[in-house]
Amino acid sequence: MTPNAASHSSGPSRRSFLASTAVATAAVAGGMPLLAACGGSDGGSRDGTTSGKDAKKLLPAYVASNVVTPDIPSKNGSAVGFTGKLDLAGLKTSVPKKLGKGNKVTVMSPFWGSPPKDGNAYYTSMNDLIGVDVVWQNQDGNTYDQKLGAVLASSEVPDVVVVPGWNMTGKIPSAIIGKFADLGPYLSGDAVKDYPNLAAIPTDAWQRSIFGGKLRGLPMPSSYVTGIVPLYRQDIFEKEGYEVPRSCDEFMALAKDATNARAKRWACLDMKWTAFNAFGVLSGNEKSLGWNEVDGKLVYRIETEEYLEALEWTRKLFAAGVVHPDAKLGKSNATDPGPKFAAGEFLIYNQDSSQWWSRTAEQATQNPDFKIWGMDIFGHDGGAPTLWAQNPAGIFAFINKKASEAVIRDVLAVANVTAAPYGTKEYMATNYGVEGTHYTVKDGVPTKTDQGNIDVMNAYVMVASPAATIAHPDFPEVAKGQVEWQQRMGAVTRKPAFYGMQITEPARYTNLSNDFEQLEDDVVRGRKKISDVQQAVSDWKSKGGDKLRDWYREILDENGSAAG
């Protein structure tokens, strides 16, 4: 088992700080795939939607990295994949010359777990590699939004502040525009070529880093393919002769066949997220992604027939008694489903794709027959599904606008190392630390030591990242499966009208649709009716939804649609 193995595959927060199962469960199971990352004040609200010709002037030139060739190249918006064993002797160098000039740089970043002591071997070795004295101001990730608001409202802003997309609510978006530096002079166009690993970050991720009409963020890129996978017990399917369903009717038939309450076996947990994908419902991941143009009219996800149909189908699963009792009580997103999944109490659940690997690694020694796999998302009627793209970056690092040019250059030197691709010395240093101290390698598989699990946590990885990458040298078949799943799903993924745009809704609309997630959960469990949703949609329209539509229409008219 390799704790914190490299899997940077998808969605907000999908980086190595999520690789610890406890954190993954807390963050992803806590509903993060449905958290809205928009909000904010009227100040500068439309400036962040720079696109088209204006954006092209701001964006860094894209220069693909040729330092390492992935085993599976990106296709249809997928991550790149690596399926080989790790050869330490064969690691490439992507930063041949130390770019840092020795300045002290303070970085505030969210941290899940107990931060290591200052001056630990990981921090020391990274600072030496980069040539910069990075001083970490780690803050509790679970209450980060409160700390962020307080710091950005003060005059004491660190040199670098990391802001996850799900924390961009309230006044934080306008503070980003007011407090952080324009990186355009250092990175726009050919200027980025001074930092080759930053030049290899996909253009879509840089587009997401435009705030207030300026390139301000250093992004953590992610695949735009949905990160929510219907995961299933492939070993039990094979043993029982179950076929993977290809429609909602087939899923229901399988679920009834597989459920035996007396034997403590149910088919699934709450399948709402998969239902949304099967019925082609616009994304609930971020408010701006929930809008799209239909027959010339802007429509929000909750107004569509598909939304109601997905909820009704999920309700039928609960009503049929095929859903595990934990999910009926609403526990499926509050507790770790791993032990009961491993025990075979249920066979299918939808969750972040990172669990494909983490469940495999968890069970490898204690349950050798256990095999988890990802089910292709099916169209509800048996045809191909219509999936909707997620945004191509979800976490950003910003540099204080009061920072000197020397400090800005040193922060970019840090980012150029942390964005190094898999298979390089810089990647191993960033993600694993010092060989012998923080990790060992046996049969081409790196494994963190106890010290590595203390020191090498979510720090440097938060400054900037390479293009989305999936690599599991311990379970290469899982890495291959994850990337190929993304490629197949990417082939049926469309971009909605506001894909890739950084949009901050006016504060008066911030809480407009907040109650829908709870309403959805009540409906699928039979506590509320579809008619209650229809009434809530009607209320949403009259309380500001129609005005919000007009506001989005202006943005669309000014910037054009990103739909594709």
Summarize this structure as a short list of keywords or feature phrases:
21 helices; single chain; four-stranded mixed beta sheet; five-stranded mixed beta sheet; D-Maltodextrin-Binding Protein, domain 2; alpha/beta; 20 strands; 564 residues; 35% helix; 2 domains; disordered N terminus
Describe the 3D structure.
With 564 residues, this protein is of the alpha/beta class. The protein folds into 2 domains: 255 residues, 3-Layer(aba) Sandwich (D-Maltodextrin-Binding Protein, domain 2); 223 residues, Periplasmic binding protein-like II (D-Maltodextrin-Binding Protein, domain 2, 3-Layer(aba) Sandwich). It is 35% helix and 15% strand. It has 21 helices and 20 strands. Strands 4-3-5-16-8 form a 5-stranded mixed beta sheet. Helix 20 packs antiparallel against helix 21. The longest helix has 30 residues. The N terminus is likely disordered. InterPro entries: Bact_solute-bd_prot1, SBP, TAT_signal. It comes from Streptomyces griseoflavus Tu4000. One of its GO terms (cellular component) is cell envelope.
Shape: globular
* CATH homologous superfamily caption of the largest domain: Periplasmic binding protein-like II
Q: Average pLDDT across residues?
A: 89
The fraction of residues in strands falls at 5-15%
What is the strand tally? 20
What CATH first level of the largest domain would be assigned?
A: Alpha Beta
How large is the count of helical segments?
21
Rg from Cα: 23 Å
- Oligomerization status of the protein chains: single chain
The CATH topology of the largest domain is D-Maltodextrin-Binding Protein, domain 2
Uncertain residue segments: 1-48
Structural class: alpha/beta
Indicate the percent of residues in helices: 25-40%
In which order are the strands of the major sheet placed?
4-3-5-16-8
Q: Please report the distance between the alpha carbons of the first and last residues.
A: 40 Å
How many structural domains can be distinguished in the coordinates?
Answer: 2
Largest sheet: 5 strands, mixed
Architecture of the largest domain in CATH? 3-Layer(aba) Sandwich
